[in-house]
Amino acid sequence: MFTDLNSILNTSPDNFKQGEFVLILDRKADASFLVHHFLSFYLRAGCKVCFLGLVQSFSHYSAVSQRLGVSLAQAKEKGQLVFLEGLKDCLGILLPGGTKPERPTLDFFSPQCSDLRGLFEFVLSSLSPAGGAGGQGDSGPESLRPPVLIVDDLSVLLSLGVSAGAVLDFAHYCKAHVCHELKGSAVVLVRCEEEEEEEEEGDEQGAEMLLKGLTHQCTLALQVQGLPTGYCRDIHGQVDIWWRGESQQQNHRKVFQYKVQDKGASFFARGTSSAVL
Amino acid sequence: MAAPVRSMNNPSGITCNTTSFQKKSRSKLVSIPGTRPSVQNGQLLVSTGVTSLDYVIGGGLAVGTLLLIEEDRYDSYSRMLLKYFLAEGVVCGHKLFVASAQDHPDDILQELPAPILDDVTSPQPVQEQAQSSDPDSADDMKIAWRYQNLPKVQTALASSSRFGHYYDVSKTMSPDMRQASKCHTFYLAEQPPVESTATSSMGEAYTDLLKTIQQVIHQQGFDGSAPQSKVRNVLRLGLHSLGSTLWGDDLCCRENPIQSHGLTTFLYALRALLRSSLSVAMVTVPSHLIQSRVLMGRITRLSDTAIALESFRGSEKETNPLYKDYHGLLHVRQVPHLNCLVCEVPDTKDLAFKLKRKQFTIEVGHTTAMATPSPPLPSPALPSPPSASLTNR
């Protein structure tokens, strides 16, 4: 949890907006530090979190969260965190003769399946207030706090052969269920490959379509970019924060530069890095 | 990935310490030859074989990760890096796995560079000093007479804890040395044809390769399935020119390949295998042949460390006097974030490589020469780029 970012977004674990659909996207930079921020933020806030970790192993997230002061293993034991480790579970499906998982969560790895229904059912079963995934007894405090879905990251699904339309459907279902029905929040990371200009070719349209669709759906977009002037050791990039809402006042954007540190990240207005001043 | 590192507490790793003082972490981690824990995040690192490359990517390759090398045109320097990587495995006693569709893996193995083992201590003057004060070598130091009969352990420790070796690319490794190490090979043309099961969107060749890797990892106990008493070792996987047409992939032929998910799915599964085992992979990809930049971006994202070699050979930069000291540029596309928020941030990204008579090295390129991607005709007074003043602070 980065306190700088909390003050920019005007939230805290005790008081945060519900029903948010946060989109994190990056271009020529790595925005995964923001995923760690939101994971520790919502765990601190006491929300029930469903985390779809598709690109890294659980030990990675656990080690980073430890530095941010949150224990994932404890949260998992308590039933507060439901963690899907895509890297671990995919081998059974991808290798011929592997043990097939019983639940259809990761069905999208097989070529016969073209949608993400199994994955959505996993989200559904792990976040529904009645029963929950493990059916732990302490549903009392959970019901007070809204549930949260975090995905790291959605764009890897495109690499695995899922069409952009299916990913958008999945995002839409998640938004409808988590943000509207359960009054919870969702945080989604999407990584873009190249510049915006080159989007003519067929496959690229998929990535761009996903990006546009998600930007349209989200209520808060955090776009992480490298510095336009090139690489710098002391400023890792800039974040374009875009609040989206119905009215004109709610709809505004701000740009900050950031530097990721060992146990957090600092955000500052453009040109005010301590390395420059 | 942190799990295998923590579970490797081999108590026999340090047997030669003479005092009761020792760093706790050291006895826990250093047990496999040719590895060392990272200073930053405790990851177990292995050397790529090129010491300067280790430095560039943050100290070395973390076990359980994937290094992607974008090949230069003609594949000459990337192939050399692959051979360095495998030769380092032979010298450290690691297990090897070589897969190729183009040349037979045995041919690649025959070309491994010869290690320079004689001057093991020459790049480390500090350790030489420590050796000269060694009680065994200093005969006139009578005050230490009672230590004379102790086994000479200092030098042994120094040589075993050495990280990365130097190689002479003008010679090849002796066959005895090469054959001492256990090596599994995968040559696509010699694989028996398998019935198409279509269990995944990967191509048949990739499925076959993945299955072979998984079998090797499982049977040799790299996934921690072997009993604890067995000496643990690292498996080095060298996969040559993935994505080329010889692997049955059409990434290089079309702008909109039909099997556009084959390689990315394979890399995802390979990463999954690596993360759960004591293995490290180097994959080379002919990126200049792949038409779609988006696809190349995805391939980069699915690997942990990614570097690209841009050779001057055949390009107009070859004759440019600004680049006359180097053979090509090295671009660090991606450095991994492993178990920590912040990754190893390099000082500069202006890197160039050159192949000396005996050695491949990476150097920090001259800033004025590197800052402009395609420099104009060299004028006597080149305006210094704005980034130069920024990096100097």
| Backbone structural class of chain A | alpha/beta
Mean pLDDT of chain B: 75
- Most residues in contact, chain pair and counts: A-B, 52 and 53 residues
Radius of gyration of chain A: 19 Å
Count structural domains of chain A: 1
CATH superfamily of chain B: P-loop containing nucleotide triphosphate hydrolases
- SS element count, helices of chain B: 13
Q: Strand percentage of chain A, roughly?
A: 15-25%
Radius of gyration of chain B: 23 Å
Poorly predicted runs of chain B: 1-17, 25-30, 119-139, 151-161, 368-393
Average pLDDT of chain A: 84
Keywords (chain B): Cytoplasm, Nucleus, tRNA processing
Protein name (chain B): Elongator complex protein 4
Biased composition (Pro residues) (chain B): 373-386
Pathway (chain B): tRNA modification; 5-methoxycarbonylmethyl-2-thiouridine-tRNA biosynthesis
Describe this structure in words.
- Chain A: One of its GO terms (cellular component) is nucleus.
- Chain A: Keywords: Cytoplasm, Nucleus, tRNA processing.
- Chain A: InterPro entries: ELP6 (IPR018627), P-loop_NTPase (IPR027417).
- Chain A: This is Elongator complex protein 6.
- Chain A: Pathway: tRNA modification; 5-methoxycarbonylmethyl-2-thiouridine-tRNA biosynthesis.
- Chain B: This is Elongator complex protein 4.
- The complex is a heterodimer of chains A (277) and B (393).
- Chain A has helices spanning 3-9, 32-44, 58-67, 72-78, 86-89, 91-94, 117-127, 139-144, 156-159, 164-181, 202-217, and strands spanning 21-27, 49-53, 81-85, 148-152, 185-192, 220-225, 237-243, 252-261, 264-269.
- Chain A is an alpha/beta fold and 277 residues long.
- Chain A has a single domain (3-194, 201-269), classed as Rossmann fold, CATH 3.40.50.300.
- In chain A, strands 3-2-4-5-1-6-7-8-9 form a 9-stranded mixed sheet, sandwiched between helices.
- In chain A, a hairpin with a 2-residue loop joins β8 (252-261) and β9.
- In chain A, α7 (117-127) runs parallel beside α10 and α10 (164-181) runs parallel beside α11 (202-217).
- Chain A is globular.
- Mean pLDDT of chain A is 84; it is low at 131-142.
- By secondary structure, chain B is α/β, with parallel strands linked by helices.
- Chain B has a single domain, classed as 3-Layer(aba) Sandwich (Rossmann fold), CATH 3.40.50.300.
- Chain B has 13 helices and 14 strands.
- Chain B has helices at 2-6, 24-29, 51-56, 76-92, 105-110, 125-132, 154-160, 175-180, 204-219, 262-275, 293-301, 367-371, 386-392, and strands spanning 35-37, 44-46, 61-62, 66-70, 95-100, 113-115, 167-172, 183-187, 235-239, 279-285, 305-311, 328-334, 351-355, 360-364.
- In chain B, the strands form 3 sheets. In chain B, strands 8-5-9-10-4-11-12-13-14 form a 9-stranded mixed sheet, with helices on both faces. Chain B has a 3-stranded antiparallel sheet with strand order 1-2-3, with no helix packed on it.
- Mean pLDDT of chain B is 75; it is low at 1-17, 25-30, 119-139, 151-161 and 368-393.
- The interface between A and B is large, with 52 and 53 residues.
